Amino acid sequence: MKKLTLGLSALALSVSAATAQASCDAGEIVAKLSHVTGGTTHPKVVAANKFAERVNAEMNGTLCVEVYPNSTLFGDSKELEALLLGDVQILAPSLSKFGSYTSKYGVFDLPFIFKDMDAAISFTNSDAGQNLLNEMEDVGFVGLGYWMSGMKYFSANKALMEPSDASGLKFRVQSSDVAKAMIGAMGGTPQAMAFAEVYGALQTGVVDGQENTWSNIYTKKFFEVQDSTTETSHQLLAYLFMTSREFLDSMENKDRETFLRIANEVSNEANLAVKAAEATNRQNILDAGGKINTLDAEGRKKWVESMKPVWKQFEDEIGADLIESAANS
Ligand code: LMR
């Protein structure tokens, strides 16, 4: 393929779903890149489209990447299985969604382990972080890089100023045992649910609250069906940009090198841009009438204290050394 071909109807789609749909030529290998986020300002949308654009320009005639955002091809529950079956070739799931394959990724979910995104980036660049990219090689998954999304914040159908405000509420979480334990430590009830179902569940009261980044809260309009969001920054949201061993091995050596180089460059670029994207989407929420509760140092300390027991609970399965390297990043 060559250029992104956008017909009129495709143009409308690109505005609403931010899809960079390529038209692939006969003879090109088609790689489907599926993800669950949407909008135009979301860091994952931007990175996925950029990756497709670069592959389609620089590997023209060989490989053609098609991007399927918004769970339109596969949602959370099916995408990893689909990768192993060869029904999709590239994914970028949250690191919180690998619990059935490895317990080590629980380290990314430990509450307050990263003081900010810079600390998380520094950990992912360290030897310990880089080794985790290959953690699921035996399954057939290959980590191409980490894509940061942002820190997470709690929203609910009432203002959450203190952890005790969460008591008795039901929160949607990703499929992560650490996240479930964290909600339990706050006195709430966790309910694991696919990302595509969250808006409806908040709207109909199936759950009372959720935790996510500014970019997800804005692009999925969660703020419209919640009282407010509290700036807890309690957890990281980041993605494993990944493919399958089978797909990578199917490429000629020189194509694989180009593919991996582009993946690396796009990942680095995406991580440099993420803080600005999050700040933009925080402001977008405010501009659209969403309410944000801020915490002072004292207030924040109470949230940190309430979640402390969770680290100990997962120390054996994650590994004390790994926890220490992440905490000291
Ligand atoms: C979520 O399920 O809340 C997130 O992982 C969605 C995403 O990919 O940002």
Structure, explained:
α2 (43-58) packs antiparallel against α10 (253-287). It contains 13 helices and 9 strands. The chain is globular. The N and C termini lie far apart (42 Å). The chain is 43% helix and 19% strand. With 329 residues, the chain is of the alpha/beta class. The model is unreliable at 2-19 (pLDDT under 50). The protein has one domain (4-327): D-Maltodextrin-Binding Protein, domain 2 (3-Layer(aba) Sandwich). Strands 1, 2, 3, 4, 5, 6, 7, 8 and 9 form a 9-stranded mixed beta sheet that branches. Bound molecules: (2S)-2-hydroxybutanedioic acid. (2S)-2-hydroxybutanedioic acid is lined by residues 36-37, 44, 94, 149, 174, 195, 212, 216, 237.
Keywords:
disordered N terminus, binds (2S)-2-hydroxybutanedioic acid, about 325 residues, nine-stranded mixed sheet, alpha/beta, D-Maltodextrin-Binding Protein, domain 2, 9 strands
Q: CATH class, anyone?
A: Alpha Beta
Report the span from N to C terminus: 42 Å
Subunit organisation of the chains: single chain
Query: What are the segments in which pLDDT stays under 50 over at least 5 consecutive residues?
Result: 2-19
| SS content category | alpha/beta
Report the helical percentage. Answer: 40-55%
CATH-defined fold name: D-Maltodextrin-Binding Protein, domain 2
Mean pLDDT: 93
Shape: globular
Total DSSP helices: 13
Query: What number of domains?
Result: 1
Largest sheet: 9 strands, mixed
TL;DR?
With 329 residues, this protein is an alpha/beta fold. It has helices at 8-17, 43-58, 79-85, 117-125, 127-133, 177-185, 198-204, 214-219, 245-249, 253-287, 297-307, 309-318, 320-327, and strands spanning 29-34, 63-68, 90-91, 141-156, 170-173, 189-192, 209-212, 228-244, 292-293. The structure holds (2S)-2-hydroxybutanedioic acid.
